[in-house]
Amino acid sequence: MIQAIFKTNKDTSGLVLRLILALVFFPHGAQKVLGWFGGYGFTGSLQYFQGQGIPTIFVLLLFAAEFLGPIALVLGLFTRVSALGIGVAMSVAALVHLPNGLFMNWFGNQQGEGYEFHLLAIAIAAALVIKGGGLASLDGVLAEQKRTA
User: For the chain, what are the domain ranges?
Assistant: First the structure.
């Protein structure tokens, strides 16, 4: 089981996908957890999501996926788990945005944002779940150590 989580190759695409997904999602997590980038911080975000009827455990899992997940992705540590968390969070968000259609609300003429961004994030996350962390990942180092031990 551990080998399946950490196993990867030295493919550059895993590194690129990890860093892009981390770059996009860290600010979202930092908004929710730290209040950076105009966010409400931990308490405000928690209260908001609870007010939407979302159970606390799911809000905490969202915070972990969007804040801790990108940190782990930069390190290439628990890449598959981190990408899966982001992928699940984006799948739920896509369902929420489904009534708004595919397209982002570039011109302000829709009720809300579409789900195209979410689909791209899900695709990147899925690729990382399948491929693993790739080049320069701690997953690769741990898998190699486990294999030679």
Answer: 9-143
